[in-house]
Aminotransferase class I/classII large domain-containing protein (Chrysophaeum taylorii), 998 residues
Amino acid sequence: MAALLRSRFVGGSILKVADLNPLVLKAEYAVRGQILQRAMEIEADIKAGNAKWPFDRVVRCNIGNPQALGQTPPKFARQVLSMIMNPELLATGVSSYSTEVLERARTYATAIKGGVGAYSDSKGVRIVRDEVAAFIEQRDGYPSDPEAIYLTDGASAGVRHLTQLLLRGPQDAILAPSPQYPLYSALATLGNGSIAPYYLDEEADWSVAVDELERAYAAAAKAGNIPRGLVIINPGNPTGASLTREALDGIVHFCQRRDLVLLADEVYQENVYGTAPPFVSLKKVMRDLRADDVPLVSFHSISKGFTGECGLRGGYFELANFRTDVRAQLTKLASISLCSNVVGQIGVGLMVNPPTSPEEKSAYEADRDAKLDSLERRAELVADALNALPGVSCARAQGALYLFPNIEVPPKAVDAAAAAGLQPDAFYSLRMLESTGLVVVPGSGFGQKNGTWHFRTTFLPSPDDIESVVARLAGFHRGFLEEFADPAEPAHPSPSSDL
Amino acid sequence: MAALLRSRFVGGSILKVADLNPLVLKAEYAVRGQILQRAMEIEADIKAGNAKWPFDRVVRCNIGNPQALGQTPPKFARQVLSMIMNPELLATGVSSYSTEVLERARTYATAIKGGVGAYSDSKGVRIVRDEVAAFIEQRDGYPSDPEAIYLTDGASAGVRHLTQLLLRGPQDAILAPSPQYPLYSALATLGNGSIAPYYLDEEADWSVAVDELERAYAAAAKAGNIPRGLVIINPGNPTGASLTREALDGIVHFCQRRDLVLLADEVYQENVYGTAPPFVSLKKVMRDLRADDVPLVSFHSISKGFTGECGLRGGYFELANFRTDVRAQLTKLASISLCSNVVGQIGVGLMVNPPTSPEEKSAYEADRDAKLDSLERRAELVADALNALPGVSCARAQGALYLFPNIEVPPKAVDAAAAAGLQPDAFYSLRMLESTGLVVVPGSGFGQKNGTWHFRTTFLPSPDDIESVVARLAGFHRGFLEEFADPAEPAHPSPSSDL
């Protein structure tokens, strides 16, 4: 009977946490972690009429989810999708829709057998892959092969396929930035591999330095790990950094020298603000440098930019310098989940191939410019307000949807955090939530240099809300410093300038 | 330098198949495997005007994808979704839509902050989880907790989460049927675990016998494996079997005795035909038997039934007898991909909560009955035609969207298959494709008893096409037997009756 008994759950007959896959237990994803759980409890409290909170609603700045905070969906795309969704409307037409909407919807309906109700080929419908290839060719000035493009449920699903393909076991590592959007570390953990962190340079607008990549590579190798790929998030998440052309050149040469697969997370490519270095794709850099031996994957998404279509879950990745038989393994992985959702696939087509008729085009461009300008203004407003606070410094907002301010946590608060079993920035973020209703993500959820503390916040609250959000944040911060000030000396008499 | 060189790709600087995760290489998913690849090449050939094929189009019977073969989408649901997709339509209304469509769309729009363009909570929007819970309570007569319901991109994503949660390493196995829809074996392989097969009883309408479950359990344990869960697909895929209440009772008791998590794939619960045993959920059976120590997961999907909304990728799973802390681990897994697509989530709500106004309700029920009746007629037509062929026997069509006929492959064809490096049923299926354009899946892709050969076909070609599909299949089969007949004796003088 011994053999038969081995399947018994730990300590009795109900499945317990100790019975589960330890890799799942180990995986962390702070963007939807402990602070958000607490926020959801508070939301439930408020909904139940419990008046114990000093605010009337929770504002989720933990995640780049623009439409949840009032950003409008893109009009042309949604009109087309509404017709695709109900083929009756294609036949009858909708009086308020333009000819271009109708024609575009008909083009998709004709090209996609079974419409949005049928499984597509596992890579996604060909018409959209053709649109993506045309977009990439136009953007970069180099050919793009629709057969090397895979449509996915957001960019995340593509990252999952690639980490699954590359990580062979505990010895394998992927070089990834610290701080880092924790999708990569979560998927590496689930894939029984690990992340080898390279540190972004906070003093240089969170840039990537080749010396640091080499250090991280050597450290991983010394620890017995085999680096398999390099993740670059450009523009950065959580940092908002837009990398210079010089940094990008160095990255490609580094991958070439070290035989690494270059995983280019470029989902914020439309979100570059002001005088920041303009976006250049790593595919273009690779081709410019004739580095045709560097396997490169570029991820994009309809969730960010100015489309902000998070809930539709549309994305793609493009492979370059991948052998056909390696691509076939990715196609097999994609096929195991059958296909990505076809509405999201068409959403990708509508993002990369915007309207062209004069009327639709000018409305589209006006909407795009207004949304991007507004994001830029809000980014600057939040960054300025943060930099005006004692003990806070924040790199200028260059791109993406986030700021990642550095906070000096007073020693008394560090002690209080330890007593609560929390990292100091998690303690700070939890206090912020409970004082203001603002949800941010502690820097410790992304990784950061030892002894530094940060939090990530989006600047997505609507233009009407953003001033009050900033005021609440500032009020909280000053109160926090006061509460945890060392009684022996005045609390932060002047903004710190030596971080 | 030795350590640094270890990351070089095998035999040179370009990533090769030998460099990839061996678990990915090992995973198989025949439903979109070799035969489909060949079919896609042939489709490209035909599109290019190459007239070398004796048919003018490929008919994909390899996958349950009803709308790709002409089934219409559900009207009420699509009308609601078109309004949700474009909030303008909610304001202006659409003259041809009923009041119930408008009200339903407004209900979702009000309840879902940010609409379909915003990430939802990782488990899915609460309003739909409430609708699912109400549906389950109504179906089973037992309470259902919306907090134990997770909305997913089709059922497949939920199966992925559960296998990832349960499989801890190479020693762990999940008991799964043979033949089996190969999602389970693919995910077990990717999860570094394995499938312990139990054989379905072809002579008893492909039923599940507890003796056989015990045999498979003991065999797995003897081989050093730890069984963690039991997969039941009811109605069956690829077999179409609808299990009896007696079989279901035995399954629940078996899981209780052996401390197994019961994974109930019930995506075909609406697809039960004629005099087959009616569908009873394993949740109801578990509650009836007061087996409240059996952790149970039930998967459902909008892709099957009579909705057939494959491309929308909507599904859910319900957990029963799961501890809160174990559920939290699943929530974390779900959060790593942020959320399932929100259109698919609302699609689930529209499936489980159909219209109730007299006019909409009667149209909905007429459409449902017509679609299910038509499926049943086509199933019988295909089964009868198969059973009339020499060397073919096919269990009656009880449920799901598939038939899984048994074929006697002549010895000369077995030899020819071996010479081509193929399993006999793969050889047969490839020949069928190249002769008729019909795409089916070889039984060897699902698992089958040694020495038996099958293929899986859907009966989804439209009522207009199905007769010609059956005629082509029959013609091919007779020609195949003739081609590979033993010259010494007449080819299958009479239908075999002793299988």
Observations:
- Chain A has 18 helices and 14 strands.
- The domain at 112-352 of chain A is CATH 3.40.640.10 (Aspartate Aminotransferase; domain 2).
- Confidence is low (pLDDT under 50) at residues 1-7, 494-499 of chain A.
- Residues 148 and 319 of chain A are 5 Å apart (CA to CA).
